[in-house]
Amino acid sequence: MSASSVDLSRFHSIIAIGNPIVDISAEIDSESLQKYELKWGETVFANEKNYGFYEFLEKKPEVTYIPGGSIQNTLRTASWCLGMEEENKDKYSITMLGAIGNDGYKDKIMEALKSSGVKPLLQSISDMSTSRCGVGIFQKERSLLTEIRASNCLTDEFVKEHEEEIYANDALIIEGYFLQEKFDLCKNLCTEFKKRNKVVILTLSAVFMVKVHFDKIKDIANLSDIVVSNMEEMEAFVGTEGEGYKVVLEKAFKKLEKGDRLFVVTDGGKGVVVSQYNYEKDMVDFIMQSFPEPIKTEDIVDLNGAGDSFLGGFLSQYMKGRSLNACCRAGNKASHIILKSVGCTFKKDDKIEFGK
To answer: Distance between alpha carbon 284 and the CA centroid of its chain, in Å?
Structure first.
């Protein structure tokens, strides 16, 4: 499939598998970052040295609890962009597959999904707590401390019990983070979706995921029709840095088996590149490059969820069969709104005119 023959017949229903998480968010200082051995702009997993960070955040008077997690952010954004809670709830379908604990966090996630028009298909693990992420914000940058708890306990039995509902969807999204503990389950889902000639989408999720779990990422990427990442993650995937997106993308396509797949790669203010590989000419077809509108530094509140919301906006228009340029514009607009908010949240008066 060449750049000129991109299929716009798209899909109307998506199910995504990933970690349902509650974000515990508050402002911190640089000393706190060092104390809890965290990193600006990166995800670190909870251990005995940094576990106190959660209590530290929750004691702050301005702490907020926001339903989060990469894939949950994406789905809620896509649903919001589609107007799922209003006029399009019968035309499109978006479902979250995962596991939650039996606690107060569970209620926040269920309420957030339902209110945004996303169907929760979540296994409740009675003796576990819901996964959480401590979000420390300093000078608009964020540091993430993630503790994956109940979401690691999604069972094959639960998936099998709901397979009719799962496979009724047109497309499956795999959150890269979820491959750490549930690779076999995810691969089985991808394989079955491909057998049924349905769409598989993979997010690379984080640089450390690509480096530590490269074989798992590559395996699922080979089954995927759309691979989504930022530039740092794609550079990690090919093992290079600073060579420019053309070289990076060519190396990325060549690492995978032949297939009519799209790469969607974001690079902050430098824009997003959507590309395919032309196997007849043995070269990358750069379908398009899209640039976001400038945003003033003083208007940025929080960088958390910006990439997730881009994908949500992109997919909302992809589902409508609109041009890839329109998909990228929608992603950029959704991301702008999230940059002006704490976490992945929308205000009632937030509106986006997507155009054609």
So the answer is: 25
